[in-house]
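Input structure tokens:
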């Protein structure tokens, strides 16, 4: 039953994510520029700082926190090679899945979910204000 709820939530999230990316990321092969990567790395460092705070204030285990840190490190490396759309899709899916599957405290889940929203809003929102027709890349 719990597994079904997890899969349903993940599927709903993925459908909404794909819709948003398809609406705003028109060039699926576009890669991050150096400036975009630098901004992305800054966002990931901010997220890591928030993870450190989580470690001090929630009941999450060291293994759970380590798993999030590994995902963040993998995402930073992937930004060099993946297209914007693929990277955003991968980042959001990995973070959302871990928030549903692994994290036990509500503050931890809220933090991860708000970071996903920030990634999407900044990426999609910046594209709307800086490109014709609200497209990324």
């Amino acid at each position: 039953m719990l597994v079904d709820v997890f899969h349903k939530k993940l599927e709903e999230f993925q459908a909404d994510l794909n819709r948003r990316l398809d609406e705003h990321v028109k060039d699926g092969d576009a890669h991050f520029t150096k400036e975009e990567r630098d901004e992305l790395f800054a966002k990931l460092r901010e997220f890591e700082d928030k993870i450190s705070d989580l470690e001090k204030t929630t009941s999450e285990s060291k293994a759970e926190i380590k798993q999030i840190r590994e995902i963040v490190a993998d995402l930073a490396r992937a930004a060099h090679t993946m297209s914007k759309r693929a990277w955003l899709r991968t980042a959001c899916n990995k973070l959302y899945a871990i928030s549903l599957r692994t994290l036990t405290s509500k503050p931890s889940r809220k933090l991860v979910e708000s970071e996903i929203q920030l990634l999407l809003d900044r990426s999609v929102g910046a594209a709307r204000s800086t490109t014709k027709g609200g497209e990324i890349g």
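The radius of gyration is 15 Å. The chain has one domain: 32-128.
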